[in-house]
Amino acid sequence: MKLRIPRTNIEHQLLKVRNKSFTEDQLLEEVASIFRDTEQKDKTVLQEIENGGEINKNDFNPDLLESGRIFHLDQIHRICVDYRLRFLASKFFKGKIPYEALIKIKELEKQHQTGLKGFKIVAPSSLFKLENADDPLLFAPIGNDYYYLIHKWGNDLHPLRKLSMWPFKTLENFILLLLVTSFITALLVPEGLFTQNQSTTEFFMIFFFIFKWFAGLAIFYGFKMGKNFNTEIWNSKFYNA
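Given the sequence above, the corresponding structure tokens read:
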């Protein structure tokens, strides 16, 4: 008769070792304590994002920073102006902060052995709680106007957003748009509408009046809606900045 040696069930062996170290109640309490600590840490980080004040520097360890995530304020300013975005303190952000962002913040705090503060977010105006006078990027300040990109979420911007926001980038861009629009509109005016034989001078008079009409509408709309150019609003917390 062949002697059969039972095979070793590693899970059962692991349970034997664990049960010698902890009772079931002790184990459940230990796990509950871990969850409580994690939940409290999440609340602390989220509270700092939602209510954090303005600071200019965090105690990062330079050796642990990824160069691809470091951006200067001038570079952030350029992107905000090109795409009509705002760069504001995270306390003004009214969107939902994803849990992945909290995880990355806690990982950074553990790696750099510090608590991160002074968070800022790049996002469209519609995602901020602005005071009255579509891709968020979460940053933390390093110092000397440098910021560290922690997390990006949401959908990518529309590929034509930069082009569509170009007229609102500066006053010069907007005036150029009005001039081009007025010129094209003047070309569409029938030649015999005002005189039988329209001269160049008469054409430019029509162009001038059309330009004044478009400019008047633009000024009225701008003042009524409290609109301003990208170069002025990129870091403003006011809706009508």
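Strands lie at 70-72, 86-89, 120-123, 137-143, 146-152. Try to locate this feature in the token string yourself.
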